[in-house]
């Protein structure tokens, strides 16, 4: 790993440890409110016997215990309190809980045919993305704002070739041959804002109910610049008071406890639900299709509008949640032969 990546992940290591241990516990009788949360995301196209385009991604997030205020949070040095105070003033008085989260991830992109060594000009570039992030979350009972700063690297230093081919060798699969043509090293940074909603839950019978979870996000940076809008419909038993079933997206929803959890459903009950969602994206820039920002690199003509449809199921047991989602993603560039299907798994574990 190149030396300029090490400080980035050292910072995230220190932050995630702070998120776990530095916040003073809530003194109420509600043990759920005293918990931090670990979220693990895994996405792969091999669920559907494919190995190309958006081929693999893994990400983790550590979420702080619920905070009544961002100032004197026990995570950042005291000289950050003024910055946190200014952020709080941008929020409405209806905010009942704040969270801070941090984490890291890696995403891997390849052309459809990975057996060819030569540059495939009409197919998407080989690319890896290694990153860390810091996010602030402001929750109301039925709305959550997320502000997220992501920093990392695109290119060989993202270690995508080693990750993909290392796993392929372990499993006895053919390795990808064209990594010599991947995007060049480039520092990567994005800033995202997302707003999630949870519309009123509608009861059907006893614990069976349904709800609708709309959301929209704005992302700007040399990795992605895009606007996104979507919604999710859930139907199930003992629905959790959360905001959408997360994927690896900028400003992803988080599974930390919300004000409704105080002494409630998630601390003592189990539940399950099925869900379906749809999303549209207006894409101004995508480095994994447009190529490196500085210098020549392989690039293809992207589609500026991309759609996504998905469905899946989730189970909650004593605050732990595991969800699986099947995702259908429309063509992202002009000469892409077909849309893509991939699977997404999310594990939410309070601790």
Describe it for me?
- The protein has 351 residues and is mainly β.
- It has one domain: Outer membrane protein (Lipocalin, Beta Barrel), CATH 2.40.128.140.
- The protein has helices at residues 6-21, 81-89, 160-171, 265-268, 287-290; strands at residues 37-44, 53-63, 97-110, 127-139, 143-154, 186-197, 202-205, 208-221, 224-237, 270-286, 305-317, 320-329, 340-350.
- The protein has a twelve-stranded antiparallel barrel with strand order 1-2-3-4-5-6-8-9-10-11-12-13.
- A hairpin with a 2-residue loop joins strand 8 and strand 9.
- The longest helix is centred in the N-terminal third of the chain and has 16 residues, at 6-21.
- The model is unreliable at 1-7, 21-32 and 262-267 (pLDDT under 50).
């Amino acid at each position: 790993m190149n030396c300029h990546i090490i400080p980035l992940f050292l910072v995230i290591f220190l932050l995630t440890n702070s998120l776990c241990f530095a916040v003073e516990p809530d003194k109420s009788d509600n043990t759920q409110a005293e918990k931090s949360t670990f979220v693990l995301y895994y996405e792969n196209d091999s669920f559907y016997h494919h190995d190309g385009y958006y081929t693999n991604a893994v990400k983790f997030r550590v979420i702080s215990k619920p905070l009544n205020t961002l100032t004197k949070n026990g995570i950042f040095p005291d000289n950050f309190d003024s910055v946190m105070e200014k952020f709080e003033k941008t929020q409405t008085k209806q905010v009942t809980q704040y969270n801070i989260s941090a984490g890291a991830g890696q995403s891997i992109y390849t052309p459809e045919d990975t057996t060819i060594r030569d540059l495939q000009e009409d197919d998407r570039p080989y690319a890896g993305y290694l990153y860390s992030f810091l996010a602030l979350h402001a929750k109301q009972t039925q709305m959550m704002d997320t502000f997220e700063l992501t920093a990392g690297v695109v290119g060989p230093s993202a270690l995508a070739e080693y990750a993909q081919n290392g796993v392929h060798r372990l499993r006895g699969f053919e390795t990808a041959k064209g990594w010599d043509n991947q995007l060049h090293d480039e520092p990567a940074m994005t800033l995202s804002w997302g707003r999630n909603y949870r519309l009123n839950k509608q009861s059907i019978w006893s614990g069976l109910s349904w709800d609708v979870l709309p959301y929209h996000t704005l992302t700007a940076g040399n990795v992605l610049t895009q606007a996104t809008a979507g919604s999710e419909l859930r139907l199930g038993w003992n629905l959790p008071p959360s905001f959408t079933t997360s994927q690896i997206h900028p400003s992803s929803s988080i599974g930390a406890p919300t004000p409704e959890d105080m002494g409630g459903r998630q601390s003592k009950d189990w539940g399950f639900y099925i869900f379906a969602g749809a999303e549209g994206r207006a894409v101004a820039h995508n480095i994994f299709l447009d190529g490196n920002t500085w210098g020549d690199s392989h690039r293809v003509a992207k589609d500026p509008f991309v759609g996504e449809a998905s469905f899946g199921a989730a189970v909650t047991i004593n605050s732990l949640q595991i969800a699986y989602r099947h995702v259908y993603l429309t063509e992202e560039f002009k000469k892409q032969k077909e849309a893509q299907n991939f699977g997404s798994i999310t594990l939410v574990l309070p601790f």
